[in-house]
Amino acid sequence: MNGTDHICKQQLVGQMGSRTTRSIILCVAAFLLVGCAGQVDRHGHLFTDVNLQQIQPGMSQDQVRLTLGTPDTKGTLDGDVFYYISSTRKTLPAGRPKVIDRKVVAVYFNNQQTVKEVGHYGLKDGKIIDFIDGETPTYGKKLTALEQLFGNIANRKSLLQQ
What we know:
By secondary structure, this protein is of the alpha+beta class. The chain folds into two domains: about 1-35; about 40-130, Beta-lactamase Inhibitory Protein, Chain:B, domain 1. The chain is built from four helices and five strands. The protein has helices at about 5-35, 50-55, 60-70, 145-160; strands at about 40-45, 75, 80-90, 100-110, 115-120. Strand 4 (about 100-110) and strand 5 form a beta hairpin. It starts with a helix and ends with a helix.
C-alpha cells in the first residue's frame, strides 16, 4: 500500500463518519420534532353527517336516543333539550390541554315531546367551559411557601409545649 492509497482510505473513512454523524443528528432532530407535535384527544360523541341528517322535526325522544345515543346532558328550560357534546383538545408536551374544537348538537323538543328543531353550535358560539378542570377554587388568603413552613413550625411548637 503506497502513501496515496493510505490518504484516500483516510478520506473515505472520514466521509463515512461524517455521513453517519449527520444521519444520527437528523434522526435525533426528527425525534424531537415529533415529540413537540403534541397529543390530540377527542371526548364525547362522534357525530356523523348521516346520523345528524336523520334527526327531523316530529321525531320522538326515543327515536332521537336510538339515532344519536344517550344525551350527554339534558335541559328543561322552555321544554326538553338533549345536548350532545364533542370536544377536541390538544396537549403540547410541556403545556396544559387546550380546546381546539367543540361541537354541540342541541335537539329541542316541544310540549308533545317531539323534535321542534336541531341546533348546531361550536367554539365561535360561546365561551369554552372546561367541565373537568381538576381544580377546586379556594377562597381566602393564599399562603406562600415560607408562610406555610413557618406556620407549620409555629403549630408544632405549640403542640410540643403542651
